[in-house]
Amino acid sequence: MIKAILIFNNHGKPRLSKFYQPYSEDTQQQIIRETFHLVSKRDENVCNFLEGGLLIGGSDNKLIYRHYATLYFVFCVDSSESELGILDLIQRWFFHSLEHVGNSVVTVFPLWLSQIFEEEGVLSMHKVFVETLDKCFENVCELDLIFHVDKVHNILAEMVMGGMVLETNMNEIVTQIDAQNKLEKSEAGLAGAPARAVSAVKNMNLPEIPRNINIGDISIKVPNLPSFK
Amino acid sequence: MVASSLKLQELIQEIREAKTQAQEREVIQKECAHIRASFRDGDPLHSHRQLAKLLYAHMLGYPAHFGQMECLKLIASPRFTDKRVGYLGAMLLLDERQDAHLLITNSIKNDLSQGIEAVQGLALCTLSTMGSAEMCRDLAPEVEKLLLQPSAYVRKKAVLTAVHMIRKVPELSDIFLPPCAQLLHERHHGILLGTVTLITELCERSPAALKHFRKVVPQLVHTLRTLVMTGCSTEHSVSGVSDPFLQVQILRLLRILGRNHEESSETMNDLLAQVATNTDASRNAGSAVLFETVLTIMDIRSAAGLRVLAVNILGRFLLNSDRNIRYVALTSLLKLVQSDHSAVQRHRPTVVECLREPDASLSRRALELSLALVNSSNVRTMTQELQGFLESCPPDLRADCASGILLAAERFAPTKRWHIDTILRVLTTAGTYVRDDAVANLIQLIGGAQELHAYSVRRLYSALAEDISQQPLVQVAAWCIGEYGDLLLEGTCEETEPLQVEEDVVLALLERVLQSHMSLPATRGYALTALMKLSTRLHGDNNRICQVMSIYGSCQDVELQQRAVEYNALFRKYDHLRAAVLEKMPLVERGGPQVNEAAKESKEVAQLSEAAPVPTETQASKLLDLLDLLDGPSENAQHPPPLDPTPGDTLIHLLDLPCTPLPSAPIPNLKVFEREGLQLTLSFVRPPGTPTLLLITVTATNTSGGDVTHFICQVAVPKSFQLQLQAPSGDTVPAQGGLPMTQLLRILNPNKAPLRLKLRLTYDHFGQSVQEIFEVNNLPVETWQ
To answer: pTM of this prediction?
Structure first.
């Protein structure tokens, strides 16, 4: 069972947090802090597995994490999950999240890279990928995630549900998300039109309508119309 | 006031522009005030946006509870946009501890039965994330219906929601068990994944379900085979492995079903061999499947050849250059070490290599595994390796490593000397990380090895002279020097180098320990007592020691002060007793299987015997009371119940009392009652350590033809006695000499008055209820004298 999924940046600022067990707000923040503390101490070329902190359950739990550019993706799982499977899942989720969340500049690059990834094998490309990302994009990937965190939540909900992996076929997930987005757009389109019109008018920057229109003296000649009999 | 209708992105931008934490807080609080106003005033078109902003603030840690009601409103709205955010809010803000969470049950019910697919999906997702037991009970019928829906998307989600529901309300298993077999025939991978998870959950919870699902093993085997054979062509393939997640789940379920079951294991053998040989392990996905296969092979009743294959796979993984793979290999080996110890032993050298990893996660796993692999044949080499590791490992692993080495040494020590050496080395390297009972254990060990006393005391002395900061080491050393100080000064010991030790130097060392700010109060106690003991062991005059005692007689620490005062008294008023009191201690008894308990006991005893023979009662701590004890054999009757016989023994031995030996001849049994075949016999025991205690066992035997039922025995004693009646072994005495019923009585007789008993029996015999009351006056004299 997956206990929690966290994304935070190199300074520990949370970018996404989803808990699959009830924790109080304070505990949630503490868990985020503790996890960041544990994960940030790790070297670059050690394994991606860590024993969990005290707050999130102790000996049975592990942290499986991946560090991409400025972001840490952390899954806190118990012993019933396959470690390598989850690791693999994080990797594929990251790429597809970006694809469907970010702007066009970002979409092409990771797609290309992900294909190389899957063909050449994890290890060899991982280093290259991270370095390239660091160089070219810096904060762009993180920014996409930051500004569209609700969309990332939606994608995550199609992948993991109730602490269990729901679907691993990224195409399926993407299809669903696209359909849902279309639904939202159509609602905003039709039903929102009147409201949008009203708010548009309200926000229109109209000049002052003159109260008195001084046209000046107009003598209007009224023609003598013959009487109609 | 016009509520701000900033878009989420705009708010995020504003927050990012804040330079300090305080600024950020300001921005968010201002926005939250707007949001609150908007919720209050009602703004149906933009409330979803407001909630989204609130959820963002919530993620950063700001309070968002006032959004809960808004979630409810949004969920109830007909628009998909609203529902999406509303349900997300429900998952993030509402959990089963809030009372408000039950209010969405109705909305979820409506959405589940009437909503479009996407909405049903949202509802199921929320239900499976935060659904409480009540909600699950209410909504189970709806979810059950959805398992039959035409849409694969909805069915997939419904199955996984069912897993969550069963976790919350186990009784719902009955509802969700029947559809499983059907669902296994689905082609949709998502549904299959959910179904396999569901079946796994059901099987783990109930053995009946486990039996039931054994019949789907062939179907599972077929599905897995199809996955393995199709390879890269399907859209589910990851790095050439077809839907690794589903494969892993199926393998896990097969493991559960095949465990301890010959028939199922038979069915799986071929398939497992196929998976093991055909899966490409060069990517994570393939390795994940292989690991799961190995664990399954080892856990079911598989063929021997298959097991060998599995262990070889693990061995290969252990040498892989990828650290992740090595980590999972170590974890898998740890799971196997209990059941297939010899197979794992073969990889011991590689495991020990992993101890030297710089990666903390890997070295921790390697440590656990190494400790599990220690046995009597490799204990010396392994301990050597582990001690090397102890010296260089990160601090959070030290405690585990130290206690692991000590435990292994205890179980497999080839010689006592080696054992003592090992413990010594651990104490010197990682003294602060050992458990509390290590001190007591070592003391007990040394005490028991008489031939090694001289050796131990010399080694400890040298270690102490070098470093007095490691508390456990100091404590043990102080104790030893106190006990065996004479051996220390004696001269040569053939096992260590000759050490010329002067009396003054020894005393100076102990004084240093006493005064050092690094010494814990307990350590100081040890040192003080050691000094006292040396007063009889050494041959010089005891002025120096007396001085120390008088100084510490006014110490701030109450414990030390008490001891010093007592020792002072020993010097001054009771000098004739000093040698007897400070004699060498007898071996401390160790308890049985519970090491902790025993350690505590022996520690208590050690402290008891050290701190001049003072009983552990709170009132009897003055030396004068002790002298009362010395005068006569009769002891104070107020013995605390948990006090085991050992302190008493030690007490008596130390005092070397000229007391009359307690009667040790067994007391004859006494038959007190006989009627129609039912006999009542009393047997007596007087435990030697407690002269006022008498234990009577009442035994009821029945030689008649009819059972005696509802047998109740009540006992009364004269006023000056205390009686405790324990529960009887039963209330039926079977006929024809069947198993007799016994009952234990504990009688305290502080005044040594003559014992009389009055017994009242009630029972049914031959269909009649009988009541008998009688007195027993002819108890043997030995029972109360």
So the answer is: 0.68
